[in-house]
Design a protein that fits this description.
Layout: H1 5-22, E1 36-37, E2 62-63, E3 67-79, E4 87-92, E5 98-104, E6 108-115, E7 123-126, E8 167-172, E9 179-185, H2 191-196, E10 200-206, H3 208-212, E11 221-231, E12 237-238, E13 260-261, E14 264-267, E15 270-271, E16 274-278, E17 281-288, E18 295-300, E19 307-312, E20 315-323, E21 325-328, E22 333-339, E23 348-353, E24 362-370, H4 391-394, E25 398-409, E26 412-417, E27 427-429, E28 436-443, E29 448-452, E30 457-462, E31 477-480, E32 485-491, E33 497-503, H5 506-510, E34 514-519
Parallel strand pairs: 1-13, 3-6, 5-10, 11-17, 16-24, 25-28, 27-34
Antiparallel strand pairs: 2-3, 3-4, 6-8, 7-9, 9-10, 11-12, 11-14, 14-15, 17-22, 18-21, 18-23, 19-20, 19-22, 23-24, 25-26, 28-32, 29-31, 29-33, 30-32, 33-34
The chain binds copper (II) ion.
Amino acid sequence: MKISRGEFLRLGLAGGVTLAFGGSACSGSGEGSTGTLLPSKAKLPEPFKVPLPVPPVLEPARADAGTDYYEMTQKAARVEILPGLHTEVWGYNGIFPGPTVESRSGRKIIVRQRNELPVPVSTHLHGGRTPPESDGYPTDLIPPKNMTHSHSTTGHTSVGMEGSRHSKAYVYPLEQRAATLWYHDHRMDFTGPQVWRGLAGFHIIRDDEDEALPLPKGEKDVPLMICDRSFDEDGSFLYPSLDPSLQGKPGVEDDYMDGVIGDTILVNGAPWPVLEVSATKYRFRILNASNARRYELALEPANHAPFVQVGSDGGLLGAPIGHRTIRIAQAERFDVVVDFSKYSVGDEITLKNRMGQGKTANVMRFRVASKEKEDSAVPGKLSAMAEFHGLADSGGSRTREFRFTRVADSGRTMWGINGEPFDQGRMAARPELGSTEIWHLRAAPAAHPIHLHLVHFKVLSRNGGKPLPTDAGWKDTVDLTSGEEARVLVRFDGYRGRYVFHCHNLEHEDMMMMANFEVV
Ligand SMILES: [Cu+2]
């Protein structure tokens, strides 16, 4: 069953609610985000000149009856991001974004990550239901080859050690629904600069339920990794690290402790790219992989085509939701369908950022290049697994409150949870495996997108009222602007062990806005 025109309009109106809230968090130079704008010294290109790149899909190195085996090498490489200039990226397989991993729900994969970078790394599969030893805990580091010249926060010494010391096999059972995940660096104290240099990629889980739907497929199922960066005169990434070697003192210059906001918008690693489309429906898996920048996405001209959201962080929604604009915080994913049949051949549709100013008010452009027979549709019902089952019998066994605020740590202003900066040895919560809890999350005096590892949750309420339309579905990250609060219902399924939850403003995370929970 397709959505009728009337449905579109009704859904579109519902989406309008997000507009009412969207602009509420503006703060100075951060363009609606918590952070400080870092101006590029390089000349920035004209928008909509370069084609949208799509990251290559990684082939498994081998497979056996139960498992697919992948290999990745984290290394530096020179790429052309700004026309005519070279940028050194730190990438998975030397590319940014990293290669896309496509997996099947319920089929185990093992990804061996080799570290050829000059710094320690830890790789986290964001949105993955992963055993603790493969979750990319911030101090579970893969040491670099030149460890003799650096000091790890966990005191790893690897002098004289061979190959395997510099790699780690991450085991992902993937006992979870189809969803758009992403993997990125999670090194203690240095996640911000290491993701900024390029350590991020998509991981898309597929399953039978998703594939049976008539949603756009193949070349019309496109991941869009949106992130902002700033560039030095020579084209290298600019980032205000206290120690740019990332081998000594962590942290950023004081002016940037609220977050680093770039002035160049990249999609799949290209500045303000353009994608030629046919006048049909496309599925876009939108990820905000920025350190600190939040976006309010809109299509211009909007005509009759809003974003039709079909999935969120944790996979398909129960039914599609139309949005005129989408407020997307760091690490959130919105799986949307855009119907270009509402436009004519030759039309150009710009993906705008309503929170941006000047160049950052643009994200990318779609150019309708041809007519084509439509072979996809958005059904009125998407997934039976989108609702929270078992709420009545297990709901909210316990409520915990977590306040995300500034804290003082040995005389320095940092970020913390319930007044405490991150401490590996402290446990903020010990939920029981299989239990369901209500976590009451409050953000001040800044925007904090809150991410829980291992689990997915439902947003029950926001500021004492109803959740936003963009809170729908299974979430692993909830966007809180300054002063906002949300109650989320969390089912602690999967594995026993120690995990973290943290703010996904990566500068806040690096400055200790993180805590442990242990599933017991
Ligand atoms: Cu934060």
